[in-house]
Amino acid sequence: MVAKKYTYGLGRRKSATATTRLYKGKGEITINDKPALEYLSGNKTLLAEITDPLAIAEKQKDYDITILVKGGGLAGQVDAIKLAIAKALTVEAPDLRPVLKKAGMMKRDPREKERKKYGLRSARRREQFSKR
After folding, report:
1. In the predicted model, what is the mean pLDDT of residues 6-12?
2. CB of 35 closer than 8 Å to CB of 103
3. What ranges do the domains of the chain cover?
């Protein structure tokens, strides 16, 4: 069995982690062994957001992409996938890095959910003050 050559990328957002493999191909995207549109519940907006790095690089039909994503919700997963694809593209073609960086695709969003503190309802929310 001959293994196909691929380029690897890792992306994270909130508590979601996505690993991508870019293969030379004709533009098929699978997420967790499902077609991308099926995994995203038919949401074409999220699918367009995932393919943003490919659209900026003008390589939508050049690569088949397999994605393994864990943790988080759909929005965090989409952002993690987008970063992972952008990173894999820069490994494949380093000349694309300035273009993707200028478009804001190479930056990891560091915002995480703040932990709940004792004595409070949530991270910062307190019980309502009662004067009497």
Report:
1. 95
2. no
3. 7-102
Q: In the structure encoding, which two tokens stand for residue 58, read together? A: 């003008």
pLDDT digits (tens, 9 = 90+) for 11-66: 999 999 999 999 998 989 999 999 999 999 999 999 999 999 999 988 888 899 99
The CATH class that applies to domain 7-102 reads alpha beta
CB atoms within 10 A of CB 38: 10
Give the predicted TM-score (pTM) of the model. Answer: 0.89
Phi, psi of 30 (to 5 degrees): -120, 135
**95-128: pLDDT as tens digits:** 999 999 999 999 999 999 999 999 999 999 999 9
Residues 6 or more apart from 109 whose CB is under 8 A from it? 13, 14, 79
Residue tagged 């003050």 (tokens): 129
Gap between the Cα atoms of 77 and 74, Å rounded: 5
The residue type found at 128 is: Q
The tokens of 82 are what? 């987008």
Q: What is the largest CA-CA distance in the chain?
A: 77
Distance CA 30, CA 100 (A): 22
